[in-house]
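Sample entry (172 residues):
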Amino acid sequence: MLNWLKTKIKKNGFTLVEALVSMMMVSIAFLGIYSAVSKYAQQTKQIKDTYIASLLGQEGIEIVRNIRDKNWVTGAAWDAGLTSCSGCNGHSNGCQADYNDASLSAYNDTTGYLWINNDSFYDYGGTGTMTSYKRQICIDETGGKLLHLVVNIYWAGGRQTTIKEDLYNWKW
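Predicted structure, serialized as tokens:
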């Protein structure tokens, strides 16, 4: 009878080693899942930041294009107010402008952060939520009929996105 009891005990349940091995395997699986999820969250934030920077760069190009078009409508020289943004060297020089500005202002690397205002637009107004984005607009004139436009967006971590466009005096 004692032999029968011993064999029955051996066949039922897990040993301590089997339980520890199974807990270790489950822990490794959870660590892998956690690592994948945290990496995904980090990459999603980087993609979002780059996307916003690209849109802010495109908005900078549209601001300059609107100023050029306003010059044509008002009869001013097509590049009036646009040639003062040349000579960009890294984070210095250049211009900045809000989405609703009629002219460009000097770029300020120390205070030139964009803010999200109460209407959810990015501007330099200093009200709302401060972001880590800065927009530098650089314009170089070549030959009187063409402007090389470069918009640099800088943000946290030393990251940068550059958008380039050529604007022409097509009304000559």
